[in-house]
Amino acid sequence: MSIREIKEKIREKKGFISDMDGVIYHGNKLLPGVVEFVDWLKQEKKRFLFLTNSSERTPRELQEKMRRLGIELDESVFYTSALATSAFLSSQKPRGTAFIIGEAGLISAMYDVGYTMNNVNPDYVVVGDTRSYSFEKIEQAVNLVLKGARLIGTNPDLTGPVEGGIIPATKALISPIELATGKSAYYVGKPNPLMMRIALKKLGCVREDTIIIGDRMDTDIVAGIESGIDTCLVLTGISSRSTVKEFPYVPNYILEGVQNIVE
To answer: Where are the alpha helices (DSSP H) in the chain?
Structure first.
């Protein structure tokens, strides 16, 4: 299929679910064609959602970040693994307690659903993306899990793309707790179908009219495949054409970046 044919197929879709890190930006650097892509989404009155496995920022912080990068968006178009995690835990045990290793986005989401912080006998140990990572917190988490707290990860990403390369993400950070306790974490973010069902509901689109755009074969693309949503891999983040061959599934489309959709 030619680039032109791929472009036409994608442009026919009514709903767009886009990852952020590696698709829209690297760190504080906007990727090529993003301004034009977002303008096109607005002009064509497409329904779109920026769905990120990163749990560090609140939707308002993501809105502010995009504004600093020169793009105005409504706060409602952002949905994070932190929000998905808090919604899941609230449905499992309303107004429970948690020991959290994470940043403002996760802590805020947990507070918003009525959870309280507890470092003595919490219902859950919840780990998300964070730069304030310490041996002391890991030690606490290990002992709380051994005492009966259930272990939750906001997402199963091992790494995340930044301007200078990659950084360890949630699955890498939670691994010492899993290894020390012998307990496996439950991961809420992509490719968990929970995240995709929420996204479709927020968009108000059926899966046949929707496409997911991402940079990772192991989360974005498999999330779309397992949810019956068409997938487009962009090569501006983690996965490359060569790494596609390492997986037993393939995306519907592969593009260099979102600029190919609108150029």
So the answer is: 3-11, 34-43, 59-68, 81-92, 104-112, 135-146, 170-181, 193-203, 222-227, 241-244, 259-262
Q: Which of 19, 129, 215, 220 is catalytic?
A: 19
Set 21, 123, 129, 215: catalytic member: 21
Distance CA 212, CA 51 (A): 9
Q: pTM, whole model, 2 decimals? A: 0.90
Domain boundary among 156, 187, 218: 187
Here the CATH number for the domain that contains residue 130 is: 3.40.50.1000
Radius of gyration of the chain from Cα atoms? Answer: 18
Q: How far apart are CA 159 and CA 21, in angstroms?
A: 11
Q: Which two tokens stand for residue 209?
A: 């009219």
194 with 183, same domain: the answer is: no
161-170: per-residue pLDDT in tens? 777 788 899 9
Are residues 111 and 153 part of one domain? yes
Query: Residue 120 has what pLDDT?
Result: 97
The pLDDT-based confidence of 188 (bands split at 50, 70, 90) is: very high
pLDDT (tens digit, 9 = 90+) per residue, 68-89? 999 999 999 999 999 999 999 9
Contact 103, 127 (CB under 8 A): no
The answer to whether position 232 is within a domain reads: yes
Within a domain: 178: yes
Considering the domain architecture, whether residues 126 and 218 belong to the same structural domain is answered as no
21 as an active site residue: the answer is: yes
Range of the domain at 247: 3-53+190-262
Per the annotation, the verdict on 112 as an active-site residue is no
Q: Examine the pLDDT at 92 and tell me if it is beyond 80.
A: yes
Work out how many domains the chain is built from and give that number: 2
